[in-house]
Amino acid sequence: MDEKDLKIIELLVSNARIPKTRIAKELNVTEAAVRKRIANLERREEILGYKAIINYKKVGLSASLTGVDVDPDKLWKVVEELKDLESVKSLWLTTGDHTIMAEIIAKSVQELSEIHQKIAEMEGVKRVCPSIITDIVK
Fold first, then answer.
1. Which cellular component appears as one GO term in the record (predicted)?
2. How high is the mean pLDDT of the chain?
3. Helix axes 3-14, 20-27, angle to 10 degrees
């Protein structure tokens, strides 16, 4: 990864819908070169995907950032089970307060609570610490 790749990532993080022509102009390269670089970043899994940032409240959904504490010997089993839950949109392994952080989106607070309970019942899960998203400020 070089400076141009890092600049492409920076531009995509700030606006994933930025036209490749604008990236090319910023980097002083061709649009074809930008397409090739982005394809390589994706192939190497340095860019994992693109997603819309949703205002959950305005579209009638409920969401949480949920910490999950897990027995170390059951970590990968729990990760695989969480990956299989459709409501779990993102997963991160972390240091600090929780072993796993999960972004969970549901149709209601009640459904969110049921998902948290399902996670709590998974073998190896020691504690589930949900933080309900009330507003997105940035």
1. cytosol
2. 95
3. 140
Q: In angstroms, rounded to a whole number, what is the distance separating the alpha carbons of residues 89 and 102? A: 7
Which amino acid, one-letter code, is at 98?
A: H
Q: Which amino acid is at 124?
A: G
Total-model pTM: 0.78
DSSP class of 74: G
Domains defined along the chain, listed by start: 3-43 (1.10.10), 62-132 (3.30.70.920)
- What lies within 8 Å, CB to CB, of 106 at 6+ separation is 61, 62, 63, 87, 112, 115
Environment class of residue 97 by beta-carbon count within 10 Å: exposed (0-12), middle (13-18) or buried (19+)? exposed
Q: Band the pLDDT of 135: cuts 50, 70, 90.
A: confident
Please name the residue ranges forming H helices in the chain. Answer: 3-14, 20-27, 31-43, 75-84, 109-120
Q: Extract the tokens encoding 136.
A: 């997105």
